[in-house]
Amino acid sequence: MKKLTDEDLNNISEIAISSAESYIFSKVSKKEIVDIDINIELNYDKGLDVNVTVNILFDDLSSADLKMADYAADYAMDEIEKFLKKT
Hints:
The protein is α+β, with helices and mostly antiparallel strands. The chain contains 2 helices and 2 strands; from the N terminus they run αββα. The model has no long low-confidence stretch (mean pLDDT 93).
């Protein structure tokens, strides 16, 4: 892997957030969601280590899958991997 620039690291964060949000909103209506918290941790000391954590607070009437946050985080990681393969 080539050395990543600050711009690359910013792009990775943006890709993670936008892809997680896109995944969630493709599965669940916005009105079913009270709050979303997406955290991206990047550690670039000895290679790249990325951790994506998604927390979703659903409306009480929502029937959404409670694993949606995990699925969204996995999807974000897949999108990051695609970006890194192009870089």
